[in-house]
Amino acid sequence: MAPQGSRAELEFGGPLGAAALLLLLPATMFHLLLVARSGPARLLGPPPYLPELEELWSPWALLLCLTWLGLQAALYLLPARKVAEGQELKDKSRLSYPINGNPIYDFFLGRELNPRICSFDFKYFCELRPGLIGWVLINLALLMQEAELRGSPSLAMWLVNGFQLLYVGDALWHEEAVLTTMDIIHDGFGFMLAFGDLAWVPFTYSLQAQFLLYHPEPLGLPLASVICLINAVGYYIFRGANSQKNAFRKNPSDPRVADLETISTATGRRLLVSGWWGMVRHPNYLGDLIMALAWSLPCGVSHLLPYFYLLYFTALLVHREARDEQQCLRKYGLAWHAYCRRVPYRIVPYIY
Ligand SMILES: NC(=O)C1=CN([C@@H]2O[C@H](COP(=O)(O)OP(=O)(O)OC[C@H]3O[C@@H](n4cnc5c(N)ncnc54)[C@H](OP(=O)(O)O)[C@@H]3O)[C@@H](O)[C@H]2O)C=CC1
Ligand SMILES: CC(C)CCC[C@@H](C)[C@H]1CC=C2C3=C(CC[C@@]21C)[C@@]1(C)CC[C@H](O)C(C)(C)[C@@H]1CC3
Fold it and tell me: Of 176, 197, 289, 337, which has the highest C-beta tally within 10 A?
């Protein structure tokens, strides 16, 4: 296994890719927010206007952000909580800190894997609470603003709020499962996760609700029911696949997974080859993508903007799947090849 610091294979296009993303991500976020508020809401092309510098700076907004983070940090530090044991980290034996001359890359991906002060784990804290709960609060504020503006929230706004509340509620309910994600085990805590968790998630994941406030979309009950069904199917696959793997990793003899077919690997860990994980190699991504579609559909089909999340998320998951594939190949070698032969499709059966 390559040590964390050796950087033999650089990801995200190396320092150049990281430098481009450092500029592109904040610019994209601002662009999307400006476009969502403009009449034509045109995703492609220049932003409708550029705000004055004073518009971008407000001591109250800064105070609000700091208070929000402070409140979340205080709740996180409450002594009455369950303490869960994490997965074995990539750098299980010892840490090494070579100086490698790639400051931009390191700034983007992070040098420290799990920075902590005492028991306060910055990455774990940021991954879930402030951004995800912030996303729900922004959605709720937009719903209330719509009620103020038009007398009551629209059905489309209710659906978007409900679906995304379910997603965030699910993440918080299954909080312990975050410990097995590549963000915690493999990625450092750099710009990507800090900006991703604290800014990108609350502000771009709430784009559909932002769009609906400025571009009301009439939605009839029959179509709303179909969209609910799509979200339910997505959630069923997402939750089923994640729970199956988590139960199996925790205890392979758990009666819920004991009957599933598996293959052994040289590491002693086994891989599921039936059930959800026998359908495609990333069934949880498939469910997540179906839900992403259901979150955009209430906004109609007149604009591309509400589908930004679906497009971004498809790219993110295709890239993430490729990264996970590399890591699994390194971990499991021949056994991973055997799994790929047995389950040839990555995310969408018979397509990809
Ligand atoms: N909304 C969002 O913005 C995002 C959401 N997500 C969601 O987060 C969730 C977690 O995703 P992610 O962290 O990428 O990874 P996964 O939960 O898909 O975990 C991948 C790991 O699972 C294990 N694994 C793979 N195949 C098998 C198998 N057949 N049997 C048993 N174990 C297997 C391997 O680790 P090992 O063998 O070491 O256990 C592999 O590294 C997903 O539902 C995804 O959709 C992810 C990114 C962004
Ligand atoms: C800014 C970049 C373009 C991308 C940054 C990526 C991050 C926003 C995402 C990387 C993995 C994530 C996960 C979730 C949220 C988005 C980020 C941080 C997650 C917490 C969402 C809720 C899910 O139930 C989950 C499985 C807990 C997710 C874990 C991965």
Answer: 197
Residue 322 and residue 350: Cα distance in Å, rounded? 18
- The per-residue pLDDT for 83 is 56
Whether 87 shows a pLDDT value over 60: the answer reads yes
Pocket flag, ligand 1, residue 242 (CB < 6 Å) = yes
Determine the length of the chain.
352
Residue nearest to atom 16 of ligand 1 (CA): 181
Tell me how far the alpha carbon of residue 344 lies from the centroid of ligand 2, in angstroms. Answer: 26
* Alpha-carbon dihedral 35, 39, 42, 43, rounded to 10 degrees: 30
Ligand 2 neighbours, Cβ below 6 Å, are 25, 127-128, 170-171, 178, 181, 183, 192, 195-197, 200-201
Note the pTM of the prediction, 2 decimals: 0.82
Average pLDDT over residues 314-332: 93
User: Tokens at residue 232, please?
Assistant: 């339910």
Could you tell me the residue ranges of all domains in the chain? 27-36+102-216, 219-352
| Ligand whose nearest atom lies closest to the CA of 182 | 1
Q: Is 269 in the pocket of ligand 1 (CB under 6 A)?
A: yes
Q: Atom 4 of ligand 2 has which residue's CA nearest to it?
A: 196
Q: Which residue has its alpha carbon closest to ligand 2 atom 23? A: 171
pLDDT at 293 (0 to 100): 97
Q: Residue 79: pLDDT above 70?
A: no
**Cα–Cα distance for residue pair 125/195, rounded to 1 Å:** 13
What is the CA angle 339-321-6, rounded to 5? 100
Can you give the C-alpha Rg of the chain in angstroms?
21
pLDDT at residue 86 tops 80: no
**3-state secondary structure at position 20:** helix
125 close to 102: Cβ distance less than 8 angstroms: no
